[in-house]
């Protein structure tokens, strides 16, 4: 019975893979514009979304304490709704930009002959965990308000910053490689 | 002719299936229960099973060749999967005495399982690295994959349920192969090469990107200065 279940599971796995393959859009991806998108995503994350000051401000409990002590109840609800909206928007933006970085990384890494499968697997897990944490946090903030999981916010911001550093290295590698190609092309032209 | 030259392994597989079918048809003419038919059935089935691995090789060659990174990943994970399966085959009889691999049906089931794992791994690499597939390759994969799924499931059920499943098996197995042939007929009607993405970045595009980036930075700085001035 165990062997039957095992083989049925393998069959089901392949069937679902084929189903998704049949439904897949055949367009090409990973063109040169991906590098520009990645740089912009990286820039947006590092300078716009992940600075510690901004994250602390968006999720600052002191603001809520101040509003609660100094304003009437109607303002409390308004403040909470608006702060919740900002927090959800911040998380959505972070998830979106991380998705851009991941797309860029996959599009670039597939051409790299010395790719390290172990590092690739680690990266895949890191990206998936990060995106999952962003989604989970979005749900938590939506249901419980912006101050429901302060530690998780910090963890997401730190993990996103780590992903940024890794992507920055891969973009730097591509720049160096491309510059090498350009130098070779230039020397060929000079030789002619 | 162009398709024959491009997809040699695939057409070798089809040729082997045709040849085996002709031989088996001749043997069947002697009698379905004849010793000749029984002696030939499993060895020839094994021949088509082995040539079927050529389709996997064909898919890897055509789909992953323009992507050295993804190709390397697929080969290494394929080797890892093979090692895992090999170890499992050695260990399974010791830890699971009920796990039987003794009969010919069970041997074919195990071989189909290995093919299913390889195709699933290959598809995982294709999905993960966003590798585009042309109509020919997509059809080849879907057609062969469906045949493997049906074979694997029916062989697994057959080895579990015994001869009582033979009547269903005799209908399902040829039907699934007919479906695969139909998919291949449509997908391989004409040559359709795999799309290859442009991964070279030229100087003009770099310059444009630099200009766009500088402009966006300038806009951001302008907005900050405006905010500071208003504060």
What does this structure look like?
The complex is a heterodimer of chains A (192) and B (231). By secondary structure, chain A is mainly alpha-helical. Chain A has one domain: Four Helix Bundle (Hemerythrin (Met), subunit A) (Up-down Bundle), CATH 1.20.120. Chain A is 85% helix and 0% strand. In chain A, helix 2 runs antiparallel to helix 5 and helix 6 runs antiparallel to helix 7. Chain B is mainly alpha-helical and 231 residues long. Chain B has one domain. Chain B is built from 8 helices and no strands. Chain B starts with a helix and ends with a helix. The model of chain B has no long low-confidence stretch (mean pLDDT 78). Chains A and B meet through helix 1, helix 2, helix 5 and helix 6 of A and helix 4, helix 5, helix 6 and helix 8 of B.
What is shown here, in short?
By secondary structure, chain A is mostly helical.
Secondary-structure element order of chain A, N to C: HHHHHHH
CATH topology of chain A: Four Helix Bundle (Hemerythrin (Met), subunit A)
Based on the structure, what is the oligomeric state of the protein chains? heterodimer
Query: How many angstroms separate the termini of chain A?
Result: 72 Å
What is the name of the CATH architecture of chain A? Up-down Bundle
Biggest sheet overview of chain A: none
Overall tally of structural domains of chain B: 1
What general outline of chain B do the C-alpha atoms trace? globular
C-alpha end-to-end distance of chain B: 75 Å
Report the largest inter-chain contact. Answer: A-B, 47 and 60 residues
The total of beta strands of chain A comes to 0
Chain-averaged pLDDT of chain A: 72
Gyration radius of chain A (Cα, Å) is 23 Å
Poorly predicted runs of chain B are none
Radius of gyration of chain B, taken over Cα atoms and rounded to an integer in Å: 26 Å
Helix content of chain B: over 70%
Question: What class, by secondary structure content of chain B?
Answer: mainly alpha
* CATH class descriptor of chain A: Mainly Alpha
For the largest beta-sheet of chain B, the strand count, sense and barrel status come to: none
